[in-house]
Amino acid sequence: MSATVDDGAADVPSGQIAPAASGEFSALDVLRSRGRVRGVLALLGPAFVAAVAYIDPGNFATNFSAGAKFGYALVWVVVVANLMAMLVQYQSAKVGVVTGRDLPELCRDHFPRAVSRGLWVQAELIAMATDLAEFVGAAVGLNLLFGVPLFSAGLITAVVAFVILALEQRGHRRFELAIAGLLGIVLLGFLYDLIVVGADPGGVASGLTPRFIGSDSVLLAAGIVGATVMPHVVYLHSALTKRRVICSDDGERRRLLRFQRLDVVVALGIAGLINLSMICVAASLFNQSGNTGLDSIEAAHDGLARLAGGGAALAFAVALLASGLSSSSVGTYAGQVVMQGFIRRRIPLFARRALTMLPALVVLGLGLPATDSLVVSQVLLSFGIPFALVPLVLVARRTDIMGSLVNRGITTAAMICIAATISLLNVFLLYNTFFH
């Protein structure tokens, strides 16, 4: 069986690599025939789009707050959250590859109508919390770099996000490369800061021991998890993989899933390295110097400039801007997937962007504390995670949906543990907020 590769032809959906009607080689074989390196690179990409959500501006707020206040004590939370994210994103990618449908579509088809609609409403609210973090973060980045007023910077962020999204309309690869490029900028920025500031290996090692230091550390831990395991990309990843490479049988799907695992490990590994760099820079620079009361991203930027030099502060601001621009584009894309999947409706990207960005513009327009808003948004996201994870677990364990590639019992158990852990964190937050 021969194959054609999507290059924007009208009869092939954007992002799809589809086999022709007859021939000898499959679509997967054609891609692999490009060579050891190019053949593998052609199959990577979806997880890099998802990974951007794991280093969005909300991570800046929670990781720097955690590192400044508690030093290396919450390093283990970052590591555990990243490992959970790897399993969750692979499961989402697997659902898309195996079924040829995304998670919202499967929820609509296999869950009661009331449940499906409820999940959609919840997902839309979470999209607003997501946009709050991304828009505020990018606006702060523009303000730090160029002195642009925050409200105007938020509007500029929306325009740039549209430009990045326009690339997806011209084929999935351009969009993936643009997002991967922005991810690379964030990585380079924090590697530079880590080299300049340094880290204490002993402190990092001690931080791998699970522990909390008072209720405030639990709040930040929930924020870290909320900023790391993101509900909207749980839905999105399945859409990115569902028809990217069309497989003719389960044997080909198993082969393709090996590359999806590699994609997730590499992309989420990079995201995890960035998150660890954030908390290590904050612990080394602020906690050990007694600046434990770091209360804003602006303060982090000023502290870097004062204690580590202008280069470190510039790298931080550029990384923040790249993070906000890329994650806001991915967030809008995810919103379209959620709406189309759950209720078979699409609205113009401009209308969706205008709706979900409203809370962020209100925050910027009223001059509310940016970092506090970011941390609160991440806690809200943490509450939304189980509503994405539970449907994913239920779908991936059903033989009538997944066929011979249904999840094994141990995988289902691990996913249930992840959902339960996050839910328990949320219950504690509710108790601590209203009854303590």
The low-confidence parts are 1-23
The overall strand count is: 2
Average of per-residue pLDDT values? 85
Order of helices and strands: EEHHHHHHHHHHHHHHHHHHH
At the fourth level of CATH, the homologous superfamily of the largest domain is Amino acid/polyamine transporter I
N- and C-termini, Cα separation: 65 Å
In what range is the share of β-strand residues? under 5%
Label the structural class.
Answer: mainly alpha
Number of domains: 2
Report on this structure.
There is one protein chain. The protein has 436 residues and is mainly α. The chain is built from 19 helices and 2 strands. The chain has a two-stranded antiparallel sheet with strand order 1-2. α7 crosses α16 (349-366), α7 (113-146) packs antiparallel against α17 and α11 (214-228) packs across α19.
